[in-house]
Amino acid sequence: MSCIFCRIIKGEIPCLKLFESEKTLAFLDIGPLSKGHALVIPKFHGAKLADIPDEHLTEILPTLKKLVVASGATDYNILQNNGTIAHQQVHHVHFHMIPKPNETEGLGVQWPATQGDMEALKALAEQMKAKM
Predict the structure, then answer these.
(1) What does the pLDDT read at residue 56?
(2) CB atoms near residue 106 (< 10 Å)
(3) Three-state DSSP state, 106
(4) In the prediction, which pLDDT does 2 show?
(5) CA angle, 56 as apex, 55 and 61 as ends, to 5°?
(6) 34-88 tens-digit pLDDT
(7) In this predicted model, what pLDDT tens digit does every residue of 16-40 receive, in sequence order?
(8) Which family is this sequence assigned to (predicted)?
(9) pLDDT at res. 25
(10) Which residue numbers are catalytic?
(11) In sequence order, which residues have a C-beta less than 8 Å from that of residue 1 and are 6 or more positions away?
C-alpha cells in the first residue's frame, strides 16, 4: 500500500486542495497549528529530501510563496523534516507553511544558542564543499 500522501495525490483520499500542478500539490493541513497551515508535496514519492530528483523540486518554493501570499501571513515558518528522529511523521517529502500570527499560535520553536569552534567549522566547510 502506498503512503497517505501518494493516496491523496491519486485522489483516493480527499484533501482541501489549494494548488496543483504536474509536479506539486498543496493543501491545508488537517491538524493545523494556526489558520492557513498548509502542506506542499512533490508528486514524486521519496521519504527524504535527498531522495527527490531536482527536477521534481523546482515548483516547491514558488508554491510555498503563493501560499504565504494567499494566507496573508506576515510572520510564518517554512518547515521540512527528514527522518523519524527529526520529527518526520509521514515519510513522503513535504513542506509546511505555518503562519505565526502571535506568540501562542503557529510553530513553537526554541533555538538553542551555541558558539561554534571556528577552526572546526572551517574544516567542516571544506569537507562539505568537496562533496558537493
Answers:
(1) 97
(2) 21
(3) coil
(4) 82
(5) 100
(6) 999 999 999 999 999 999 999 999 999 999 999 999 999 999 999 999 999 999 9
(7) 999 999 999 999 999 999 999 999 9
(8) Belongs to the HINT family.
(9) 98
(10) 94
(11) none
Report CA-CA distances (Å) from 115 to 118, 124, 126.
Answer: 9, 15, 19
- Could you give the CA distance from residue 132 to residue 129 in angstroms, rounded to a whole number? 5
For cell 516547491, what's the residue? 60
End-to-end CA distance of the chain: give it in Å, rounded.
35
**Per-residue cell: 97:** 507553511
Residue with cell 512533490: 42
CA–CA separation, 111 and 22 (whole Å): 36
Give the 3-state secondary structure of residue 17: strand
DSSP 64-102: HHHHHHHHT-SSEEEE---SGGGT--SSS--EEEEE--S
Q: In the prediction, which pLDDT does 111 show?
A: 83
Q: What is the pTM of this model?
A: 0.91
Write the CA distances from 85 to 2, 88, 91, 93, 121, integer angstroms: 22, 7, 12, 15, 24
